[in-house]
Amino acid sequence: MNSILRKSILGIAGLTVAGGLAAGPLNHDTGAPAVRDTAVTTTQAAKLDSNTLIPHGVQGAQSRIDLNDEQTANVKAIIAATKKAGMDERAAVVSIATALQESKLENLGHLGDRNDHDSQGLFQQRPSSGWGTVEQITDPEYSTTAFLKGLKQVDGWQDMPLTVAAQTVQVSAYPDHYAQWEQQAADLVAEHWNS
Fold first, then answer.
1. CB contact at 8 A, 122 and 100
2. Contact (Cβ atoms closer than 8 angstroms) between residue 59 and residue 163
3. What are the beta bridge partners of residue 120?
């Protein structure tokens, strides 16, 4: 992304946050690993509270889809790539909500006439925009890492509402659509982060 466009987008994002869309500071406390109570199952003990993963509260009506095995595997791949990048649970929520909006967590190849230019993969990244080759952006680990690299470059992303942070990286024609997936993304991170 060129620096003028990036500065313009960051300026708009800053105005949005300054304008009152941000409900409060982001909770950076990831806490210690969950202590397992022998009377509680491993899955229950390791599960995070999804409400702590939504520091600004959800913005607007929420959407939800049932996931198949492939989509669940893609959730786990996004979480693994987030951990590998040294980023926290909130970064995974932003990533998963973005992939839910862009592809419904399906690793999409070229869609022919229905394709948005040359967008492909979980995040609908475009080779012609410098996201990588088709082979790279259709690899869940690579595409997530590329998204997270963009997110890291957004000053203050941790303090932005999810849709603003996602839009600053993605530069979508529909910037507010990411918000509808925040609750499901938080629920998925809560369920799979420690699994």
1. no
2. yes
3. 125
